[in-house]
Protein 1
Amino acid sequence: MKLRELAHTRTGDKGNRSTLTVVARDAKDFARLETQLTPERVKAHYHGIVEGRVERFSLPQLGALQFVLYEALAGGVTRSLALDAHGKTLSSHLLTIDID
Amino acid sequence: MSKTSIRIGAGAGYAGDRIPPAVELAERGQLDYLVFECLAERTIALAQLERRQQADKGFDPLLADRMRAVLPICLAQGTRIISNMGAANPLQAGQEVLRVAQELGLQGVKVAVVQGDDVLARLLKDGLNLPLIDSAAPLSSLQEQLISANAYLGADALLPALQSDAQVILCGRVADPALFLAPLMHEFGWAHNDWTPLGQGILVGHLLECAGQITGGYFADPGYKDVPNLARLGFPLAEVQADGTAVITKVAGSGGCVTVATCTEQLLYEIENPARYLQPDVVADFSRVELTPDGPDRVRATGANGQPRPDTLKVTVGYHDGYIGEGQMGYAGPGCVARGQLALELVRQRLRDAGLDQLETRCELIGVNSLVHQAQASTEPNEVRLRVAVRAPTRREALLVANEVEALYTNGPAAGGGASKSVREVIAAAAVLVPRDWARPQLTVLEQGGSE
């Protein structure tokens, strides 16, 4: 199924990095999200957007994964040519990823 | 007078935020403090440019409107107002508040103005060798284009203002969560090295600093995340105890919702490593924060910790960075994507012929790939809008590119319509770290009647 059925997301920006929050709707789904949403998988899903690495932090007590996407914002909000320079709409893209 | 709990409300989460929810909070939130957070990264640079044109400007243009809306009720209820709407001219901002008070027939209003964040002169004198954060270059590489340099002051910079009897406290650049931490330190007597309560105070500030983003704003996804009465979204308030633990809630009957889900999204918003959230007052640790329901639209936030504060202060540097030219054109109906792609190819070819193809350029179809740039159209959309954006060193070159898009009217594919074009000057932001003592907070209390 798509991640949208299992979790909700929000992005923010910090310099040229996008911060991407994934929160399980139901705590029981957190374990499989943690297993399947690896930094590598997330970087691949944002191919062409994320030029740098992806880091991940886990907050099991909140059912949340926090990703930092490096070099994802075309230089950062004050310089980017992108229409959505903050990358706020990017959180919706993760919701299309497949989860077993 | 020491209290057992403090009520703090968020009256704005950014410079353009809505005013009615702040009025609702002021009227019905029974607040001790109302905070307006109105400075984004480059806001001060833009304000600095304005101040150079006009010496009595350079503060937030909505300051007077916000004060007219809430100052009378806040004065009557004893709610103190704290804001960074001072921007690049906190003293003039203070005078503006007194003017509004006069206009409204209010008496006895005092404004505490906190300055000291502006470190441009010091940087030009002693800091040109400092390395830019996130870059290999030193600050001197931007010397010709510099506009502003403002240090993120901490809550400690606001304490003297809170100790005065001013009802309104205005500053320039202060770390956003510190606007909320400062009154907590003041009321509960936390010392500068009480790291755990400071970490909790930063948690409260971070949860509140974006106002509606924790009460159901930036959250609704119809059918998946439904938010009641979103049009009348209320802004949040925190009920904070002396140990820093807090309940996040909103005025009863206001729109929106405060849930563990909305709070979790805001907790992690723009956070990188949750265990190390660097602030001027403390390195906050959110990694073990717990959010628990405490009744309808009430969420308790506990479990933040803190480590000693950094030795340096972060400084945002504003600088000129050329121009961005942009053109857009719409296409609709059958073949709209093919016509949009043909139009993009025409613009690219014409820019090559004009020798402008070396400029950094972005070409896309809004409706297909302007947001997720690698995306393909899965089905033919009803309409698309072509967009070409370019970064150019001069206004003239930026406009040439924008003009090429507009020229698609008579020189491009069929039925292109609704063209728009723009050229804007780019004010970019970079950052350096400076020793703490380069930024010395300075308090001035302004009173009605023209005396200081």
Note: Residues 7 and 24 of chain A are 4 Å apart (CA to CA).
Protein 2
Amino acid sequence: MKPAPFEYSKAGSVADAIALLQGSDGNAKIIAGGQSLGAMMNLRMASPEMLVDINGIDELKQIGISGDHLHIGAMVRHVDVAESAHVNESFKLLRYAYTFVAHASVRNRGTLGGNVCHADPASELPAVLQALEAKMKIAGAGGERVVPASEFFVGIFETAVEPDEMLIEIQIPLATGKKNWGFCEASIRLGDFAYLAVATTCDLAGGKASNVRVAYAGLADPSMRCGEVEALLEGKELSDELCDEAGKLAAKILPVSGDLQVSEEHRKDLARSLTVRALAMARS
Amino acid sequence: MDIKKHKITVEVNGKKVTAEVEPRLMLSDFLRQNLGLTGTHVGCEHGVCGACNVMLDGRSARSCLTYAVQVDGARIETVESLGTIDKLHPLQVAFWEKHGLQCGYCTPGMLISAKELLEKNPKPTREEIIDHMSGNLCRCTGYQNIIDSIAYAAELMAAERAGQPAE
């Protein structure tokens, strides 16, 4: 289907983009790679009155290490994140998760920044970034602020970014890249969104896990970490019994629902079994 | 609604084209309707099927998820750029000889994706072909002949590079 009519402006800078958003009274949306928003607009599930194109803002296209973080600009394409030497060397969880994300043509245009701002609850990357304790840098008329990933995904397709603000950078601590990790996903076909996915990181020392982070996608709520599962595992040895218990706890408390393709019961069971598998990956 | 049109200058298959476009005009429709390049096909219009794939600045892209207004200054290659009836691209020879198409609807997108794969990875394994091509859907063939065609095209292109002409 064709999208509804809209006005178009190409922003030359972050300040420019913010001014355009402010001037539109909440009726404008940013377009980055267009792989999510473009599809929604073609299906007429979204019809913003104006698109602010940020593809020309070069300062958002940088990816590199500065201090003790990897900085990924909001306009860095998925393909460039996934194939970056920094990610391949230092963030193997992110590299591995990317093998489950979409297909070449979509990764060539889509951006990591756009994916997190779109906040599809079935998308893997918000869960991965929460397991990696990423931080999102947001710019608005009042300046810049940093929001931790665990506070960024506030609702289904809803983030902490206000209508007159924009995400400019994702920062991932190098320290979390050094942790043990696990990632498991169930989807209809490889590359589809997850109908349940688990991303986990932890430090392992003396046989005991610490700084355990377990994040989920495919829930009835926005993707999130599960504090109860993390608390259960913190400071303990990741024995088969404990991991099984963690899986059962996840199935019991995570908000899941059923749809035409996957029943609620099946999702609950996946919450259990994928938790166990992801933890097995992390401890090996 | 009086939507402002935008002027774009874009290189398509090696030729510079200038046009005035409404923002919501998709690149797929611009290519097909404004430029008469109907090789690019429109299947799902929401980024899933891959029939609309073109090369945008050297990388495959869904032309149904790109607005024409966004490609000002860009370089586009459509399936029409692969070869001519007198000099087919090895991919076209291979799809022909190995029956990689039936109705042909998905084929332009398949060829663009395959071209990208073989540029990045001239000697792909069968698994690598399958993995890269998974973003293109086909309703007719059951995919096996498409994979065979791409594997064969890789051989033809390797032979060409080694100095033997492709048939």
Note: The interface with chain B takes residues 1-8, 31, 34-35, 38-39, 42-43, 51, 53, 55, 79, 102-106, 108-109, 189-191 of chain A (CB under 8 Å).
